[in-house]
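Holo prediction. Input below; ligand is zinc ion.
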Amino acid sequence: MGSRMSIKTRIAIAYARTKLSSRKVSEDVENPLHEWVQLKVRNTFKQDEDFRKALGRSKLGEIDRAVFEEYQLHRFRKQVAYVMENSYYYQRKYAEAGVVPERIRTMEDLDQVPLTEPADLAEEPFLFLCVSQSRIARTFSTSGTSGKNKRLFYTREDLLNIIDSIAAALRSAGLKSNETLHIMFPAVVAWDPSLMLESACKVAGLKSVVCSEVDVDEQVRVMRERGTRVIIGLTSFIYRVTVLARERYDLRSLGLKAIICSSEPLSEAVRREMEEAWGCKCLSQYGMTEMGLATAIECHEQTGLHINEADFLVEVIDPDSGKRLPPGEEGELVWTSLSFQGSPLLRYRSYDISHYIPPPCPCGHLTVGKIGKPKGRRDAATKIGLGERIFPVLFDEAIMQVKGALNYQLVIDKPSFRDRLHFTVEYSGDMERGRREVMEALTSLDEIKNGLDNDLLEPIEVEMREVSKDFTPKMKPIIDRRQSYDN
Ligand SMILES: [Zn+2]
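Structure of the complex:
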């Protein structure tokens, strides 16, 4: 691998490495993510006089939650001032709202700053750009549900920041420098995170291998050959490989330390199956392309995902009123990038539903909080039967607990006054048994039972499908063909 790199590239990587805080966290610390966050606060204290002034201290001392919030507010003020100077979008929007960075002193003051709508970003991404074109090192595109692509711009420093947070997250999952990360995203996903992960590992000094093969023998062979210790990939893709490979291999003998499930929600049913098969913890990761992907990851406690709060400020709001909600209450996640320079987003609506869990965590994390496992996007929720709000994760839990079920899709329509639910399930095993078990799992759900009892649902339809040769990620697990449904 080294011989293919030019001397120039090698020097660039070596230089980049010196800038990563994650490289300065020792391999043996109990909680690498915690150490890394602390290090970043200390760096800011050293380098930024405004932060020292805001804290009113000449020595930092212990970083408790109060100090940490002061750090976040300091960075938030700086970002507000920065975007007001450099982005057309924020210049206009914040001037109209009368935003003054210096007036933001407590978390409650964040209310003075208007929310950013994803539709605005999709409509005119260049209005968000804060640097000259020549400083843009990379552009990410993300397809929104509205159809229009959102574009995000990252500078070289932004990319280093992302790499640093990816490395810190991988270390927190247990990956050490001499161990291999197995990167497992199918080649068919529209935007492939493999490249980003691979180069992040290279710069951070971690070993990795990209394997997008649908063929499970090939997957297991590569893991054995490379001595894989941690897997990261698309949840449904890893699950597919798990179900098909465990029939032929003793997956526990590979000695994995952890599996990181990315890009799709991880249901508890799938988690149980995978932990059983591989004999290691299965951790959920939450990333938004708009925020540079690495935003939150579960610790081994599995009671929520630790947010990279050194680089992101997370709030939970009531999606209808826009009001900030207290910790523990469920609402929509709103993200602010505290570090990016290319096209940073402030108070950006994610449409994802979750709640905030303040520190400490039994894993040893004392300063940063967690989000509960996101339930899914607000616009992915639908209503059936009695008008109960349903997230796809409800059906994930029900269907994926059936042994052999790999994937599913639900089409809802309304041929008469009743809703009709048609499930197509990709399944490995005896089809008739599978169909019966899926049917039992679905009809035991209260939401479906109530709908049937009240004559608001047509009888549930379950169609079983053989395991396909290819893998198709379900971009939309629920397709709603109804003209309208009652809100
Ligand atoms: Zn924890």
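The chain is about 35% helix and 20% strand. That is the main takeaway for now.
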